[in-house]
Hints:
This protein has 302 residues and is an alpha/beta fold.
Amino acid sequence: MAFWGIDLGGTKIEGVVINSISEPNVLCRERIAAEADQGYQHVLDRIQLLISEMSEKTGQEPKKLGIGTPGTLDPLTHKLKNCNSTNLNGKPFKDDLEKKLGIPVVFSNDANCFALAETKLGVVKRVMPDAKVVFGVIMGSGVGGGLVVNGQVINGRQGIAGEWGHNFLDETGGPCYCGKVGCVETILSGKSLERFYYENFGERKKLQHIYSEYLTGNSQNGKATIDRLMHYFGLGLSTVINILDPDVVVLGGGVSNIDRLYTVGVEEVKKHLFNNNPDLLILKPELGDSAGVFGAAMLATN
């Protein structure tokens, strides 16, 4: 039996067909533009088109589909919410997609798919294969999180389990699109760090260039920005760890490429833990951009 997964992003839709969960061989992997600006129904049509193209290439039809979304399916209303592709919010996406495709569809948010893939195929499987609780962190253009317990995604009663990006962190982050002020996302996302640099130092620079400045040791501007990241990373993530006490934390997204997070950042987290001698495992991901779509395919095993 083949496992089919879709990773629905704001700009692209990626699909994969694999023959196994434990040792996957990719039978087909394709991506197309999402064209989300053309509306909700058009996104449904694009997913159907991608499935059709993969069916033609593999000579198979899916029996079930796993899909990772930029938001979450509300277990109470059965509609999508919290999507940065806002034309999906408030829509009965699961029901509509199942009607269009004629097969069962299993949903989870993209951070959950990332955490699931790194647990079963990636760095967690290699470093701590017996891990029971894994927290997957996404720090990119936004900030999110996914929780895997005993190999299963935990969605929660309201579908928001793991969403640490919208905990309050500090008012200096300013307004968040969610309607609150000072969310983790307004401070630790790549866009927020770039905004901080611009608003304080008058230059627009990408985060990788800011980090390069910091590494030279000669830039007070770069130092102030990366020091801010390390300090608030410690504050924000320590709260999650104090509640969950996970075996492993895996970082993903563009901000996770900053190596100092795994040294300086880890020490900042330890400062705020309710533990005098913290044993903390924070790891780099290994699956790259495969994690989301592989994790989505794994949903189809449920």
